[in-house]
UniProtKB/TrEMBL annotation:
Metal-binding found in the keyword field: no
Residue ranges crossing the lipid bilayer per the database entry: 97-116, 128-154, 166-184, 196-215, 235-260, 286-305
Taxonomy of the source species: Eukaryota, Viridiplantae, Streptophyta, Embryophyta, Tracheophyta
UniProt keyword terms in alphabetical order: Membrane, Transmembrane, Transmembrane helix
PANTHER family (UniProt xref): TRANSMEMBRANE PROTEIN
Protein name: Transmembrane protein
Keyword Transmembrane: yes
Length: 344
């Protein structure tokens, strides 16, 4: 290599940069590696201190850039970075406002106003109450299936299989949210009970999940210390695989039952059942609310799973990150791949 010396003149003192001998420093770049030579400064103490200060700032910026590149690469690779919970302050507040508006619309439109299909809460009919009781008795098809195999200790109410299928599909989907909520990394920002939250969500209405999604976006406080997991939370977390299998099987059974269940009950063929479904959604407030719940779950499922990929076994993160966008299937994958030995 040919030697060369470049002299820079300033008003303070001359600086000589000697490129004759150096020790290469390899720097990671996206495209090609670069070699930067060391610089020997010759001058008074003031110039040397200034030169060292510049070098220190450059090294610090290089480390920051390297960390930024590493985090960006991890996010692009599905490592859980860039989640909704890491939005900037303006976007976070806007999202909270949208969620609280959605909660208000849900309550007013579905519970109070008479304009949506079916009866509002204050004018609910006896037929709707009877239908709700019948659907609850046929929870997860336990009574219909026991009757089907010849066990008749309790007779299952006979309802249209489409309504039974829709009801149990939403309930099975809600069941699988339990392990996800109990392992949510932001759950401690919610000061209420996760047991009560999930219980109301499971057995009453999905309206309770919307405020949780808004509250978990609050800015972290000093008292947001991890709380001890309840007994129900421990059961749901340690038994997440069982919860996922149960929810997945009931979801599949719900779809099959809706189209083919009670074949001897004169509920019609596939076309007639679809016609009933259309009429059911347009005339019953309960069924209409289920459609709202499904739409909300389509948003909340990938959102929550994406925020909690660190809870998944390392070799399954990429698969769960892709499946989280598939309705029901994403939650089944989360439950089956949850690392129950990891502190959450």
């Amino acid at each position: 290599m040919q030697s060369s010396t470049v002299t820079l003149c300033t008003a303070v003192s001359p600086l000589a940069i000697n490129c004759a001998s150096f020790r290469p420093l390899r720097i990671v770049n996206f495209r090609t590696p670069a070699l930067i030579s060391s610089v020997d400064f010759i001058g008074d103490d003031r110039s040397k201190r200034r030169s060292l200060s510049i070098s220190s700032r450059c090294a610090r910026r290089l480390r920051l850039n390297r960390n930024f590149i590493s985090s960006t690469t991890a996010a692009a690779g599905g490592g859980g970075g860039g989640s909704v919970s890491e939005l900037n302050d303006g976007a976070r507040k806007l999202l909270q406002v949208i969620l609280w508006i959605a909660e208000a619309v849900y309550i007013v439109w579905l519970f109070l106003l008479p304009y949506a299909p079916g009866d509002p809460v204050w004018a609910i009919s006896s037929d709707t109450i009877s239908s709700l009781i019948g659907l609850s008795l046929n929870f997860f098809f336990i009574l219909p299936l026991t009757n089907l195999v010849g066990i008749h200790l309790i007779e299952a109410p006979v309802l249209h299989p489409m309504s039974e299928g829709l009801f149990n599909l939403v309930i099975a989907w809600t069941l699988m949210f339990a392990p996800l909520l109990y392992t949510d990394k932001l759950r401690d920002r919610f000061k209420g009970s996760i047991d009560v939250l999930w219980g109301f969500q499971m057995f009453l209405t999905n309206t309770f999940l919307i405020p949780y999604m808004a509250i978990r976006l609050n800015v972290a406080q000093e008292d947001d210390t991890p709380r001890k997991t309840s007994q129900l939370g421990s059961v749901m977390t340690n038994g997440a695989a069982i919860v996922g299998l149960t929810g997945g099987l009931v979801s599949v059974l719900s779809i099959v039952w809706a189209f083919y269940g009670r074949g001897d009950g004169n509920f019609g063929d596939l076309g007639e059942r679809l016609e009933f479904l259309q009429s059911y959604l347009g005339s019953e407030r309960l069924a209409y609310a289920f459609i709202w719940d499904i739409c909300l779950y389509l948003v909340f499922q990938p959102w929550l799973i994406g925020d909690n990929l660190q809870n998944i076994r390392q070799d399954k993160v990429a698969s769960v990150n892709l499946l989280r966008f598939v309705p029901v299937v994403g939650l089944v994958a989360y439950c089956l791949c949850l690392d129950t030995g990891k502190e959450t």
